[in-house]
C-alpha cells in the first residue's frame, strides 16, 4: 500500500482563496510534471536524473513515463550515491547541460553537502565567473505517518546559509510549475524544496511555458492588522489561520516569499510597514531557521515599523518523533499561527 | 603497517620509435615548464607577495605531462589542490596562472581562486577542488555530458592517493562503469597526505587494484617515467574515446617539497632527507633529459635552447603578474551568481 499517498489524499489541502480562481486547474503533481515536459521539449540540454525517476511510480507521478517520451539518456535512474551524483550533475552542467536531480527527500541531500556547498555553490565565484553551474536539485519534505527523524527534515535553513545557491519553496501548483521552469532556466545551482502535503492540491495552472522570477514574493491575502510571512506548506496553514482570524476581527496579510534565495525583502518590509506586526511561519526548526533570518531582516531594516515583538512559528528543536501523539506537538500549524497573532495583537489592542 | 620498498631507478624503454620526436620533445618541454614555474614560485614565495597557500608539484611533473599530451584541447581536465602541473600541461595560460598566485584581477580565476583553484576553459580545464577527491565526480559528470552530447571528448580527473580514501571515488567509478563514461581517473600516488604516510592510512599498497570489483581497468605505472605515463594514459584515453568506458591509473611518484609551502617536510619531521634524496635522484625531468641526450633524440644545445625559451616565458609571466592590477574592492560581490 502506498501509505503516504493514502494519507495525503485524506487531506483537504486546497488553499483558501484559490478554489474559486478561474482558468485551467491541475494537481500539484501534474503541474510539476508539465514543467519538466516543457523543459525537456524546449531545451535538449535539460535532463532529469534521480533514484526512481523512471520507475512505475515515477517520483510521486511527477516523472511518470517521461523516460519513454524523452529517452533513457535524458531521464534516468541513479545509484544512491547522492554526493557523487550531485558532483556528476555539476560536471555535466559545466559542459553546458542543465541537469535536474530529483530526490524523494531532502534528508538525502545531507549526504551531498560536500558537492552542494563546496562545489556547486562555489564554482562560479571561485573561478571568477568563467564557468557556471546551471542545475536544479529538487526534493520533497515528507510529513506524517511516522516518517520520523530521517524522512521528514525541512532543512532549507542549511541551504539558505550558503552563498552561491538559490533556494526555492513553492506552495501552489501554478507556482510549482513556473518556479521549476525558472529554476531550470537559471544559470546557477538551485535547490527546490517541495512539501509532500502540498501535493494534494489542485489549483489554477496556466498552459504552456511561463516562468516566475526568482526573488519575487506574492501577497496571498491582503490585510491591515498583521503580516504573516509563510513558507511552503505553511502558506496553506497561514491562509486557514487568516480566515479564522478574520472571523475574530483580525485582518491578517499573508505573504508567500516563494523563493528564500533571493528573498523578496521589499514585499515583506512593505507589508510590515503597513501592519506593524509580523509572524513568520516556516516548516523547519526554529533555531537558526528561516524565521530567524526573516525576523533579523525586519529587525534591521524595518524596526521602526514594528508595533510589537516578532513571533516565529516553527517546528520544535528536536528530531521529528515517529508517534503521531508526539508529531502533533512537533508540527506547528494553523492553531499556532492564530495564537501567535492573537498574542501580539492582544498586547496592542 | 604496509612498508614501501625503496624505489628502483627509472627504467626508460628505449624502444620509443612509435612515439614521434615531436611528442618526445613536447613531453620534455612541458615538464620543464612546470618545473621552472614551480621553482620560480618557490624562489619568490618568501617575498610574501603570493598570498595564497601553494602546493608545489616538483617531482610529479611527469604525470601531468604524460597524461595531458594524450588529450585534445577540448578534452576536459579537473584538478586538485596541487594543480599547477595539470594546468600547465593541459595548456593553461602561464601568465594567468602566475597572476592568480599573485591574487591579481588578471589571474585565471580573477584573483577569486588562488593557487588551489585554477581554471582555463579555453583548453578544457574546468576547475580544481581543494576538497580531496572533490573533482572526481565533476570529471565523471563532464564525461556524462560528453556522452549525452555525443561530442567524443574525454575527461580526466587528477587526484592524490588520499582521494581513494574518500567515498566519492567509489560512487563515481560505479557510475562511470555503469554508463561506460569516457573518463580517466589518474591517481598521483605521492605516498603522503599532508604528513600522513600511505601505510598509516591504507591497509594495502595496491591502489591500482582497489576498484577491481567494479571491473574498471587498473594500471600501475612509474609516475616519474614520463614515457610510461604517456603510453599507459594513451591506452586509457583511447579506450575512453572509443566508448570502452573509464580506466584507472595509479602513478607512483613523490612530491619533493612539503605538502604546502617551499620546505621539504624534513624540518617538520615526518620524513627523512635520505628518502627525499632517493626520490630527487629519480627526478622525472632530469632523468628524461639524460635519456633524450643518450638516445640522441635531442642534443644538449637543443635542450639548452628549450630551457632558455622557457626561462624567458616564466620571467615574462612573473613580470605580468607582478605588474597586474588587484581586483577592485567594489567588485567583491561579482560572479557569485550568473
Structure description:
- The complex is a heterodimer of chains A (349) and B (338).
- With 349 residues, chain A is of the alpha/beta class.
- Chain A has helices spanning 3-10, 28-42, 66-70, 82-94, 113-120, 123-126, 156-160, 173-185, 234-247, 265-275, 290-301, 324-330, 334-346, and strands at residues 25-27, 46-50, 75-76, 98-103, 135-141, 166-168, 189-195, 202-204, 218-221, 226-230, 252-256, 259-261, 278-285, 311-315.
- Mean pLDDT of chain A is 93; it is low at 1-20.
- Chain B is globular.
- Chain B is of the alpha/beta class.
- In chain B, helix 5 runs parallel beside helix 6 (167-179).
- Chain B has a six-stranded parallel β-sheet with strand order 2-1-3-4-8-7, with helices on both faces. A two-stranded antiparallel ribbon of chain B has the order 5-6.
- Chain A binds chain B through residues 47, 73-74, 78-79, 81, 83-97, 114-115, 118-119, 123-132, 163-164, 166, 187-188, and chain B through 76, 78, 107-113, 117, 119, 121, 126-127, 129, 131, 134-149, 155, 167-168, 170-172, 174-175, 178, 334-338.
Topology:
The complex is a heterodimer of chains A (349) and B (338).
Chain A: H1 3-10, E1 25-27, H2 28-42, E2 46-50, H3 66-70, E3 75-76, H4 82-94, E4 98-103, H5 113-120, H6 123-126, E5 135-141, H7 156-160, E6 166-168, H8 173-185, E7 189-195, E8 202-204, E9 218-221, E10 226-230, H9 234-247, E11 252-256, E12 259-261, H10 265-275, E13 278-285, H11 290-301, E14 311-315, H12 324-330, H13 334-346
Parallel strand pairs in A: 2-3, 2-4, 4-5, 5-7, 6-7, 10-11, 10-13, 13-14
Antiparallel strand pairs in A: 1-8, 6-12, 9-11
Chain B: H1 21-44, H2 61-68, E1 76-79, H3 84-89, H4 94-101, E2 125-128, H5 135-149, E3 155-160, H6 167-179, E4 183-189, E5 192-193, E6 196-197, H7 198-201, E7 218-222, H8 226-241, E8 247-252, H9 273-280, H10 284-294, H11 300-323
Amino acid at each position: 500500500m502506498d501509505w503516504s499517498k493514502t494519507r495525503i489524499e485524506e487531506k483537504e489541502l486546497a488553499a483558501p482563496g484559490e478554489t474559486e480562481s478561474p482558468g485551467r486547474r491541475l494537481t500539484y503533481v501534474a503541474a510539476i510534471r508539465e514543467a519538466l515536459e516543457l523543459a525537456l521539449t524546449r531545451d535538449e540540454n535539460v535532463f532529469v536524473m534521480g533514484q526512481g525517476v523512471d520507475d512505475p511510480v515515477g517520483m510521486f507521478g511527477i516523472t511518470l513515463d517521461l523516460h519513454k517520451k524523452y529517452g533513457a539518456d535524458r531521464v534516468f535512474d541513479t545509484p544512491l550515491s547522492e554526493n557523487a551524483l550531485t558532483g556528476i550533475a555539476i560536471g555535466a552542467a559545466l559542459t553546458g547541460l542543465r541537469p535536474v536531480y530529483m530526490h524523494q527527500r531532502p534528508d538525502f541531500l545531507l549526504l551531498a553537502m560536500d558537492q552542494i556547498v563546496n562545489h556547486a555553490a562555489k564554482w562560479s565565484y571561485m573561478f571568477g565567473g568563467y564557468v557556471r553551474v546551471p542545475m536544479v536539485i529538487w526534493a520533497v519534505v515528507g510529513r506524517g505517518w511516522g516518517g520520523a527523524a530521517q524522512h521528514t527534515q525541512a532543512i532549507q535553513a542549511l541551504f539558505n546559509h550558503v552563498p552561491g545557491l538559490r533556494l526555492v519553496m513553492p506552495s501552489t501548483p501554478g507556482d510549482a510549475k513556473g518556479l521549476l521552469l525558472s529554476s531550470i532556466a537559471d544559470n546557477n545551482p538551485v535547490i527546490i524544496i517541495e512539501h509532500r502535503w502540498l501535493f494534494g492540491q489542485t489549483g489554477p495552472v496556466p498552459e504552456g511555458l511561463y516562468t516566475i522570477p526568482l526573488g519575487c514574493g506574492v501577497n496571498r491575502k491582503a490585510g491591515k492588522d498583521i503580516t504573516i510571512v509563510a513558507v511552503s506548506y505553511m502558506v496553506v496553514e497561514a491562509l486557514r489561520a487568516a480566515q479564522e482570524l478574520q472571523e475574530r476581527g483580525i485582518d491578517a496579510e499573508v505573504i508567500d516569499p516563494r523563493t528564500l534565495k533571493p528573498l523578496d525583502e521589499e514585499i515583506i518590509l512593505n507589508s510590515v510597514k503597513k501592519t506593524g506586526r509580523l509572524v513568520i511561519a516556516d516548516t523547519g526548526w526554529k533555531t537558526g531557521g528561516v524565521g530567524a533570518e526573516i525576523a533579523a531582516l525586519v529587525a534591521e531594516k524595518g524596526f521602526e515599523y514594528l508595533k510589537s515583538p516578532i513571533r516565529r512559528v516553527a517546528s520544535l528543536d528536536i528530531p521529528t518523533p515517529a508517534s503521531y501523539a508526539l508529531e502533533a506537538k512537533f508540527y506547528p500549524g494553523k492553531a499556532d499561527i492564530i495564537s501567535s497573532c492573537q498574542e501580539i495583537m492582544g498586547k496592542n489592542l | 603497517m604496509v612498508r614501501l620498498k625503496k624505489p628502483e631507478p627509472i627504467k626508460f624503454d628505449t624502444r620509443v620509435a612509435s612515439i614521434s620526436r615531436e611528442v618526445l620533445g613536447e613531453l620534455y618541454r612541458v615538464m620543464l615548464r612546470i618545473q621552472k614555474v614551480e621553482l620560480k614560485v618557490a624562489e619568490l614565495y618568501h617575498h610574501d607577495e603570493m598570498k595564497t597557500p601553494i602546493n608545489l608539484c616538483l617531482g610529479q611533473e611527469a604525470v601531468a605531462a604524460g597524461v595531458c599530451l594524450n588529450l585534445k584541447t577540448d578534452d576536459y581536465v579537473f584538478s586538485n589542490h596541487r594543480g599547477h602541473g595539470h594546468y600547465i600541461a593541459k595548456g593553461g595560460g602561464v601568465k594567468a596562472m602566475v597572476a592568480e598566485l599573485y591574487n591579481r584581477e588578471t589571474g585565471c580565476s580573477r584573483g577569486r581562486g588562488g593557487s588551489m583553484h585554477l581554471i582555463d576553459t579555453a583548453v578544457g580545464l574546468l576547475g580544481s577542488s581543494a576538497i580531496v577527491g572533490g573533482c572526481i565526480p565533476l570529471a565523471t559528470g563532464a564525461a556524462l555530458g560528453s556522452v549525452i552530447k555525443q561530442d567524443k571528448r574525454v575527461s580526466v580527473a587528477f587526484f592524490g592517493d588520499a582521494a581513494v580514501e574518500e567515498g566519492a571515488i567509489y560512487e563515481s567509478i560505479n557510475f562511470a562503469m555503469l554508463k561506460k563514461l569516457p573518463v580517466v581517473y589518474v591517481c598521483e600516488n605521492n605516498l603522503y597526505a599532508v604528513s600522513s604516510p600511505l601505510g598509516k592510512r591504507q591497509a594495502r599498497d595496491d591502489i591500482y587494484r582497489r576498484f577491481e570489483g567494479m571491473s574498471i581497468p587498473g594500471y600501475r605505472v612509474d609516475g616519474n617515467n614520463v614515457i610510461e605515463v604517456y603510453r599507459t594514459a594513451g591506452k586509457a584515453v583511447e579506450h575512453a574515446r572509443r566508448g570502452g568506458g573509464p580506466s584507472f591509473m595509479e602513478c607512483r611518484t613523490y612530491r619533493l617539497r612539503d605538502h604546502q609551502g617551499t620546505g621539504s617536510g624534513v624540518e617538520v619531521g615526518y620524513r627523512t632527507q635520505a628518502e627525499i634524496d632517493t626520490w630527487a635522484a629519480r627526478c622525472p625531468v632530469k632523468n628524461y633529459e639524460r635519456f633524450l641526450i643518450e638516445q640522441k633524440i635531442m642534443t644538449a644545445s637543443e635542450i639548452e635552447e628549450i630551457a632558455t625559451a622557457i626561462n624567458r616565458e616564466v620571467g615574462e609571466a612573473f613580470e605580468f603578474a607582478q605588474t597586474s592590477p588587484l581586483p577592485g574592492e567594489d567588485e567583491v560581490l561579482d560572479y557569485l551568481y550568473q
